Amino acid sequence: MAGRLEHPGYDEEKLRRVSEQLPCREVQAGALLSLMGQPQQYCYPSLFIYGHRASGKSHVVNALMKELELPHATVSCVECISAALLFDQVLLALFGCGAASLLPRSPSLSDFVRIYRQQTSQSPAEQTRYIILEKAELLRDADANLLPSLLRLQELVDDNVSVILLSEIVWDKFRPNTGCFEPLLLHFPDYSKGELQQILSKDRHPSYSAEFYSSYVHILLGVFYTVCRDLRELRHLAALNFSKFCEPVAAGKAKETDTHKLWKNIEPHLKKAMQTVYLREVSSLQWEQMEEHDAGALRGLSAHTHVELPYYSKFLLIAAYLASYNPARTDKRFFVKHHGKIKKTNFLKKNEKTSNHLLGPKPFPLDRLLAIFYSVVDSRVAPTASIFSQISSLVTLQLLALVSHDDQLDTPKYKCAVSLDFISAISRTVNFDIVKYLYDFL
Predict the structure, then answer these.
(1) Within 13 Å of residue 175, how many CA atoms lie on the same side as its CB?
(2) What is the DSSP string of 7-38?
(3) Tell me: the pLDDT tens digits for 39-49?
């Protein structure tokens, strides 16, 4: 049963509508209302709301602002790639296009404060104004004075204004070394399994009973809850697979109460969907078409079978994997002809008794990568700019990771960021048996 929000200064009917929109978040909404206080009172200068993705932060704040009709400006820091865009959106939302047009071409923080004070002198705040900054962690990359100034904006503009920061990371990661005004903190915990069941059950299909859809959600959470607790992703998966779940019922082969039959029918499809959690490599329509045309295994849904790379980029990635997971002194064993007999036990060290694949990828220099590349590639390849640009492309695709500093232009170091299954699939496309060249599999 949804809790009821109560707070003096706000209409009870509006608070009831807010409660209906915020299932399983009544405690956090009540705490936020207590921090905000009554509309006419001065609010605390800045609030910091943090929690994992899809934990209801933006939904709770926006629902309160809209239903209680509070003056506010909601700004996404992803969209505002500069401080000028942020200032423009705040003035536009709070005071209209006239105030926003007063900003100069490249406004500074002092220009924003000056124009804000002019507008408040013309139209003083009758109730607290709120500036909501979503994805606030991006402010750490902005000008050094922007975040500290926003935290004490109430003092700078001499107005009843409060800044609410929404973030997925904790405040300790924000705090500047030079110090700043400390906001009030409010944590939004992850939804529990029972709360996810309650929320997802509200999306039931009108053609089926609430109990039937609730049992489907229970099965879905039983499969996905250990690997995914993101409400948005679970909602997407629920909508995507429900047609398969109710197929036996629609065909008359089972009743809504035949849970065992329904589970047997949906189980293989949910296991296939596990391969694409968060990836969204295929659209919902493509997924449904593949379900119709392929009753067997759904090949092609995992990441490594969808990556299309140029011919030499595949060999560069293979060379990078070998450089990351093979000790440097084994290169002679694998890539030099007539190296003589070298027993593995002769150069085993204490720290190499553990598998390199368990220890993770190790960094390697560019010259070692190229040396292995020229050894494994079938044809002779000249070290042209095309090869080096393909290395940069692999870094951009996050298949390689640059681990050296940007100023080390002469000896850059990289790490391979792909799994064994991924590189095995890439190797098969060029008829290269990578396992024969891995030290762990000797």
Answers:
(1) 10
(2) -TTS-HHHHHHHHHH-TT-HHHHHHHHHHH--
(3) 888 899 999 99
Give backbone dihedrals phi and psi of 416, rounded to 5 degrees, phi first.
Answer: -85, 130
What one-character-per-residue DSSP string does 47-68 give?
Answer: EEEE-STTSSHHHHHHHHHHHT
Map tokens 């309160």 to a residue.
Answer: 64
Three-state SS at 435: helix
Output the CA angle 124-115-167, nearest 5 degrees.
Answer: 85
Buried b / exposed e along 160-188 (16+ C-beta atoms within 10 A): bbbbbbbbeeeeeebeeeeebeebeebeb
Site of tokens 């008359």? 252
Distance CA 316, CA 359 (A): 22
Please give the pLDDT value at position 383: 65
For residue 408, the tally of other CB atoms under 10 A from its CB is 11
On whether the CB atoms of residues 367 and 413 are closer than 8 A, the answer is no
Write down the pTM of the prediction.
0.64
How far apart (Å, rounded) are the C-alpha atoms in residues 180 and 147? 9
